[in-house]
């Protein structure tokens, strides 16, 4: 069958509508009691996976020529740069005064800037190591102390990254040198993911993350900058929403429920654009409330725009929360579906009554959407595939004169057609 390619801009709601008033898709999610799990979430497909946060201690950004290394702040791991010497002191770590050392944190803006990169001075100094322009490797010039919950303090040395091979070499041990482990971590099997994780307590790699392009947001615990009592900011462990790398978002508050003008403000790809402060706790009742009249717009990897509103947040006892989402704009529909439907619309031009049909035998349900030239959805309804095969007549929809786009969408097929109303 001839493939159908199309490119249109329109506004589309994912839920059923009554004459253009969209009802959102509602998702009920749970991070578990104590917020123990991270949820990887797709605006298009909902929850991708929920995984325990306590299975790893450090994580390596998988890009071949990256030096980014994270620490698991959300689990409670704390990282310090050893301030009393360089890598030649590996066998003689002196932790006197450790309680006064300043911990290091992952960037709250950029995923690739982990806690191990906190003291980076700029190329060729990436915090934990120095770049060699001859072979493109990085060589560790710093030692670290890491505190792991239920394990205690360990010393850690990121010795080398062999960039072309995409292999990290590191070692870790108890502070007294006991239980030393030397690791060569091959990152290549994990390059479809954002990070490869490692458990120091179990001395093993942890594959916990879905493919990079399958999720847009992660609901997690992370360190962010929160206001203090003196007009400044301080690092604080929060529970909230982080954007995947390259996923852009913006926020509008306060706006009414009919607000869809997402393009009136630039979008930001910072990790914490959505963040944590869309909810607040009532200190008298110790119950959580969600900020009303507060909407986020998210652009995913397909450049589709979604609107997001948080509805409920139960708190740490259950970790349950609820959100609503709307598919606002398919900015570039240029898809090859398993089946691209030839659509027939008649009469066309029409005075208001028309029939749309396809010659294909279709299984399952289909959604018929109608958009005007500005991209505004004016009507939507669900039918069966058999009804489309026999011909759908929506009746007189009282559409104003002009050009409209009709879109049929099923589980593995789609089609579009143009309609002129006189």
Describe it for me?
The protein is mostly beta strands and 422 residues long. 1% of the residues lie in helices and 43% in strands. The protein folds into three domains: 24-34 and 213-330, no CATH class; 58-207, no CATH class; 337-421, Immunoglobulin-like. Mean pLDDT is 88; it is low at 1-21 and 332-339. Strands 8, 9, 10, 11, 12, 13 and 14 form a seven-stranded antiparallel sheet that branches. The protein has a five-stranded antiparallel sheet with strand order 3-24-23-22-19, with no helix packed on it. It contains one helix and 31 strands.
Compute the gyration radius: what is it?
26 Å
Provide a count of the helices: 1
Category from helices, strands and their pairing: mainly beta
Low-pLDDT stretches are 1-21, 332-339
Classify the beta-strand content into a percent band.
35-45%
Overall mean pLDDT score?
A: 88
Give the tags:
422 residues, mainly beta, Immunoglobulin-like, 3 domains, five-stranded antiparallel β-sheet
Task: Provide the fold topology.
Blueprint: E1 17-18, E2 21-22, E3 25-30, E4 37-42, E5 46-52, E6 58-61, E7 69-71, E8 78-81, E9 129-131, E10 138-140, E11 144-148, E12 152-162, E13 167-174, E14 181-186, E15 195-199, E16 204-206, E17 217-227, E18 233-243, E19 248-252, E20 279-282, E21 287-290, E22 295-299, E23 304-313, E24 320-330, E25 339-340, E26 343-346, E27 355-358, E28 365-372, E29 377-384, H1 385-390, E30 402-409, E31 413-421
Parallel strand pairs: 25-31
Antiparallel strand pairs: 1-2, 3-24, 4-5, 4-17, 6-7, 6-15, 8-11, 9-10, 10-12, 11-12, 12-13, 13-14, 15-16, 17-18, 19-22, 20-21, 22-23, 23-24, 26-27, 28-29, 28-30, 30-31
